């Protein structure tokens, strides 16, 4: 007995489990900007903050002690200018001093990052990250 031909169809949807499942679910929603591990490998940055330099709506400058300072140009600072987005690492909010610089460069390196979510204004921020202080946007970094 011979079986008939089998046709397998699929799409390029990435199936992830655990923390990254929510990352990819939010990515499919169409809100925010996303940097995947593939993007990171392709760009080969030296610091995590280097990955944020080309993100529309963000600016990366240098502050005290020559450290990178990330600012959201679309956030609601109360004065119509830029302000510091809230930063999360693996779902935990990092305490940060907006004038001191980017703490992410101190706590992780690009080789350990699985993905980054960037929401430059309050209207984009998903409920998981919409806490007091997120009116300037959110950067959520997920490690491997």
Short description:
With 144 residues, the chain is an alpha+beta fold.
Task: Please explain how this structure is put together.
The chain is α+β, with helices and mostly antiparallel strands and 144 residues long. Helix content is 15%, strand content 23%. The protein has three helices and seven strands. Strands 1-6-7-4-5 form a five-stranded mixed sheet. A hairpin with a 2-residue loop joins strand 4 and strand 5. The model has no long low-confidence stretch (mean pLDDT 83).
What is this structure's SSE topology?
Blueprint: H1 19-29, E1 33-36, H2 37-43, E2 58-62, E3 68-72, E4 86-89, E5 92-93, H3 104-107, E6 113-119, E7 138-143
Parallel strand pairs: 4-7
Antiparallel strand pairs: 1-6, 2-3, 4-5, 6-7
Give the ordered list of helices and strands: HEHEEEEHEE
For the largest beta-sheet, the strand count, sense and barrel status come to: 5 strands, mixed
* Total number of strands: 7
**Fraction of helical residues:** 10-25%
Low-confidence stretches: none
- Gyration radius (Cα, Å) is 18 Å
Instruction: Tell me the strand order in the biggest sheet.
Output: 1-6-7-4-5
Query: What is the count of DSSP helices, taking H or I runs of 4+ residues?
Result: 3
Distance from N terminus to C terminus (CA atoms, Å) equals 48 Å
What number is the mean pLDDT?
Answer: 83
Strand content: 15-25%
Shape: elongated
Secondary structural class: alpha+beta
């Amino acid at each position: 007995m011979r079986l008939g031909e089998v046709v397998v169809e699929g799409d390029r949807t990435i199936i992830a489990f655990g923390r990254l499942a929510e990352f990819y679910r939010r990515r499919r929603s169409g809100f925010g900007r996303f940097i995947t591990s593939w993007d990171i490998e392709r760009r080969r940055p030296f610091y995590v903050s280097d990955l944020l330099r080309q993100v529309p709506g963000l600016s990366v400058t240098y502050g005290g002690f020559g450290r990178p300072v990330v600012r959201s140009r679309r956030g609601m600072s109360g004065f119509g200018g830029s302000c510091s987005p809230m930063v999360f690492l693996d779902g935990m909010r990092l305490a940060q001093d907006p004038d001191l610089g980017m703490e992410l460069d101190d706590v992780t390196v690009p080789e350990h990052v699985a993905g980054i979510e960037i929401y430059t204004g309050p209207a984009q921020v998903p409920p998981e990250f919409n806490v007091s202080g997120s009116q300037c946007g959110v950067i959520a970094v997920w490690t491997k």
